[in-house]
What does this fold into?
Amino acid sequence: MLNGRTGPIACRYCDLQEICRLCGIVAGGEESARQRTGSTRRTLQVGDRLFHAGDPAHSIFAVRRGMLKTVDIGQEGEEHIVAIHTPGDVLGMEAFGNRVYARDAVAMQPVSFCKLPLSLLSAQYVRARELGMALINLLSRLSVQPIASVRGSSRERVAGLILELSRRFEQRGLDGRSFSLGMTRQDMASLLDTRIETVSRTIQKMHRAKEIEVTGQQVTLLSLKPAV
It folds into this structure.
């Protein structure tokens, strides 16, 4: 954890690692290999869009540092958070289907990410079988990736989200005990389909009960543990 940001992660913890290897991109980020293959690393600031719903989908993306949210935009411009994305996650997989991005992807923290153009994948015809299996494995992981539950009590929802973030960070080789939530209380309320007052009150109760320690967006797990 650096300066309240999440990550960066090592390439070996990223869901795109095997695909990048097959495409000839050196794990660890050797710049000459990236320039040769067309893969690039880029950054976003808070509130920047990685892509907009309806944009032509020419690339997939992997998060290296920070967090993003994918959102649906209502008729009056209001946001509804569909999912959050932490380091190692892959976005833009709809590029393989409709060839347009389905939702807006918005940076919740300063973000660095890798961009992998679809043209690079199609050029790897020599390794078509290996690459196809790697893509199938990636899609299978994404299809079962859990999101925060919108069922149960307010405490169960908030605790479930915090524990899910902890699990994801540990899986990516990051600190799963003390980390940034990466989102405002309003973002959490939208994701959990509840009110911001309920989220704030629940977090404070958990803090007073010494289940967690909270300072702004920074949270440290104390006695909070997954339900057995």
